[in-house]
Specification:
This protein is of the alpha/beta class. Helix content is 39%, strand content 18%. Helix 1 crosses helix 5.
Length: 211
């Protein structure tokens, strides 16, 4: 199934969500020749640590997605204010519908419906509405998921994890967060891989499969 996808869309409520949730899968898709587009909805200026300029995360996501193999022309970065997505739900839905009408992706990766962050919840719910005619998978953000169904595993090689970890290292402004620890990233992928007798893996909830 993975090798059949030519156009893959990744929805990240905030810069770095996509890398955490499916960075390894993105590198595997890029390696198979798929066109991967990444859309981030917020650069979270109000959440930046002191001393970082407002455009920090916009620059960091460009560097990170480049490491994953996604060219800059396939990156879109919006500037919705963090934690305000519920108030801008219709505007976000219209952006997503426009993406569907313009590009018709074969598969969409988005946050889980079980994600407790209000911005993630909006992207997850509106993503289901906008892309209901194609394959939709929800990625794991463990510290935000109190419930998660391990329904699909994408096996990864070491080279994919190396690029995922390198991409996340581009977020200098986020290195104070405990989940940014490279050992955590490697161990999580190793655990998921072990569960399906693979070296590494990322996990997803399946909302729709169109084959």
């Amino acid at each position: 199934m993975l090798t059949d996808w030519q156009r893959v869309l990744v929805l990240a409520p905030h810069t770095d969500d996509g890398e955490f949730g499916c960075g390894g899968t993105m590198t595997r898709l890029v390696d198979t020749g798929a066109e991967v587009r990444y859309v981030a909805f917020s650069i979270a200026t109000k959440s930046l640590p002191a001393g970082f300029p407002p455009d920090t995360l916009a620059r960091e996501v460009r560097a990170a997605t480049t490491v994953l193999g996604i060219p800059e022309e396939r990156l879109t970065v919006h500037d919705f204010e963090v934690r305000t997505f519920p108030n801008r739900r219709q505007e976000i839905l219209e952006l997503l519908i426009a993406l569907w009408e313009e590009w018709r992706p074969d598969a969409v990766f988005q946050p889980s419906l079980h994600d407790v962050h209000q911005d993630h919840q909006v992207i997850a719910a509106e993503g289901l509405r906008a892309f209901k005619r194609t394959t939709i998978l929800g990625y794991e953000i463990p510290w935000n998921n109190y419930d998660f169904s391990y329904q699909a595993y994408v096996s990864l090689e070491r080279k994919h994890l190396e690029r995922k970890a390198a991409a996340l290292a581009e977020y200098a402004s986020q290195q104070h967060r405990r989940y940014a620890d490279p050992e955590y990233i490697w161990n999580l992928a190793r655990t998921h891989g072990t569960n399906v007798n693979r070296e590494y893996a990322e996990v997803f909830e399946v909302y729709r499969v169109v084959a």
